[in-house]
Amino acid sequence: MVKLVPDYSEAFVSTLRSKEVIDRLELITKSVDYLDETRFLPSSKTVFFNGKIGENSFRISKIIDKADSFLPLIKGEISPLPKGCLVSLNYSFFPGASFFLGFWAIVSFGLTVLFLSVVQDWKLALLCFSVGLANYGFAWTHFKRKVQESKALFHELMKL
Question: Does the N terminus or the C terminus of the chain have fewer Cβ atoms within 10 A?
Answer without folding.
Answer: N
